[in-house]
Amino acid sequence: MLYPQRFTQFTREHADTVAALLCGLLLFLGWFALHLGALELAFLLLPAAYLIGGYESAREGLTTLFKEKELDVDLLMIVAAIGAASLGLWRREYHLIIDGAILILIFAISGALEGYAMQRTERSIRSLMSLTADTARVLHQGREEETPISQLKVGDEIVVKPGELIPTDGIILSGYSTLNQAAITGESLPVEKTVGAEVFAGTLNGYGALQIKVHKPAQSSLIQRVIRLVEQAKTEAPPSQEFIDRFEKRYAKVIVIAGILLATLPPFLWGWDWETTIYRALTFLVVASPCALMAAIMPTLLSGIANGARQGILFKNGAQLEKIGKVRAIAFDKTGTLTTGQVQVFQVISVSEYTQVDVLKTAAGVESYSEHPIGKAIVQAAGNLDWVGAVQIQAIPGQGIVGIAQEQQVIVGNAVFVQQYVTNLPDKLREMAQSLEQEGKTVVWVAKNPTPLALRGADVMGIIAIADEVRVEAAVTITRLKKLGIEQIVMLTGDNQETAYSVAKAVGIDRVYAQLLPEDKLDVIRRLQQQYQTVAMVGDGINDAPALAQASVGIAMGISGSDVALETADIILMADRLEKIAVAMHLGRRSQSIVKQNIFVALGFIMLLLVGNFLGNINLPIGVIGHEGSTVLVTLSGLRLLK
């Protein structure tokens, strides 16, 4: 039973390809039967080839004709093929039936390729939904009851335990914890939350238990708004995406009208006989059919997609290859995009009596027992050093941590916390700390007291600056984009102004938007589109999903990117290498150039064949050869992008 199921699934997923293969097989067998003189068998096989290969095109063409009152290329090709077959039967020139079948086969293959290239990966929001809990622990008369999220009411009090997702937006009534909000706000560091602070659904609770009051309906939570924004933005297709379809319909309408005129007027105007008139009208439909024109586009895009894939650039949509070559403005998320997204020790500064190694080893001794991300970053930085773990650890949430190491009291925390244990903070060190904080760094003070029980008298050893590391290639990438002529480069982030401007300065970005929620990023992208039309957005988090969906070209980081960002984006940088954005833009511009060349060649062939047909210098087989030859030529031209 397994193999029939797999076969059924394969044929369903690749219906166009299967139809093209069957059409080609039946065409070959029909041609072979004609060659052997088995007319009955040929007349059985060739109609089957017409039916299988042309069914989808005929269905789409007739649907467009009757529902939209428009003619398109699908219907035009079917009319030309059936006309060729009818003329072949009439004149008993059965090779014309083969010519018609070849036309259908070419179009079926083109349709299958277009389906693979243009079928946009469904922008699923399952990853967003995974961030929303199904139930919440609601307090009723002192007891916890599991309640579906949809049944929560404003005023309900819920309990969130350590390590759990926040089920809905609310206000903390009691408790203290650190929350990882990177998926929602893009903040690089977990945020400390206590009584009175607002928490968002989909954020991850840290080590503390929280009691939260629901202050808005669950469907109005920030994560639900993100979901709705993604759904809304992905349905707003840019007008350029529909240009090819509109052109096909207008072109087909002109050709059909011209074909009808050619099939009726010449006997009255020039005295042609009806057989010659119909023959030339059908030849006109064949040579004027825009297969070469369509082949001028898709092989080029497919080649560019294959080229990009070899270089770690995944284009989900062939149209995006063209669009990225037209980008005039680009927006970057900060955390996880321009930066690594990993909290690290940025700088260690010691007072004269101690070394940087002393400061780092002492801090690691107590922070090794901490679950706070800053503590983990300090321990990681001291990984190769010979430090001793402390005992009698006492953590003060939101302030610092104290312990005993080598019979000395060690204090690590913010300035206010450490001041409780020291006589004074060195002025020079205080100035350095203030400077680092203005740059957006988090500063941790380190002190130790030889007398563990003394309330004061500890010596300040130094400070440790914690930061999200900027990607080494970020500045080079921004420089390359400016050289490519990108008119506007901006940075969007949920972080504070100081951190945002420090990162922007480091990478060379002049325009910064900070402290943004997902919907704010979406608004910025829309404003940029009003001014620059084609705008790219580069991001990695769930909070970037609406902006990625709204942007003309959404670019996601493949390794650090969240699932929803990867599903929403049009282009994925598989190795998180920002410099590949410039490579993708170069590919896009080359594809535009080659497409224009191919269109010129395709239209040139069509004009030559049309003139030759009108002057009576070509017959239907020569028209088919010219038609197919031009198609092959522009297809091979498009394959140049494989290099």
Helix content: 40-55%
- How far from one another are the termini? 44 Å
The secondary-structure class comes to: alpha+beta
Strand order within the widest beta sheet: 10-22-21-20-11-18-19
Overall shape: it is elongated
Number of helices: 26
Descriptive account of the structure:
This protein is of the alpha+beta class. It contains 26 helices and 22 strands. A seven-stranded mixed sheet has the order 10-22-21-20-11-18-19, with helices on both faces. Strands 2-1-3-9-4-7 form a six-stranded antiparallel sheet, with no helix packed on it. Strands 12-17-16-15-14-13 form a six-stranded antiparallel sheet, with helices on both faces. Helix 2 packs antiparallel against helix 3 (39-67) and helix 25 (580-614) runs antiparallel to helix 26 (620-638). It starts with a helix and ends in a 5-residue tail after the last helix. Residues 117-128 and 236-241 have low confidence and may be disordered.
List the helices and strands and how they pair.
Blueprint: H1 2-13, H2 15-36, H3 39-67, H4 73-91, H5 95-118, H6 126-130, E1 135-140, E2 143-148, E3 157-160, E4 170-174, E5 177-180, H7 182-185, E6 191-193, E7 198-199, E8 204-205, E9 210-214, H8 222-234, H9 243-264, H10 266-269, H11 274-288, H12 291-295, H13 298-310, E10 313-315, H14 318-324, E11 329-333, H15 334-338, E12 339-350, H16 356-367, H17 373-381, E13 391-396, E14 400-405, E15 408-413, H18 415-418, H19 427-438, E16 442-449, E17 459-470, H20 474-483, E18 488-492, H21 497-507, E19 511-513, H22 518-532, E20 535-539, H23 545-550, E21 553-557, H24 563-568, E22 571-573, H25 580-614, H26 620-638
Parallel strand pairs: 11-18, 11-20, 18-19, 20-21, 21-22
Antiparallel strand pairs: 1-2, 1-3, 3-9, 4-7, 4-9, 5-6, 5-8, 10-22, 12-17, 13-14, 14-15, 15-16, 16-17
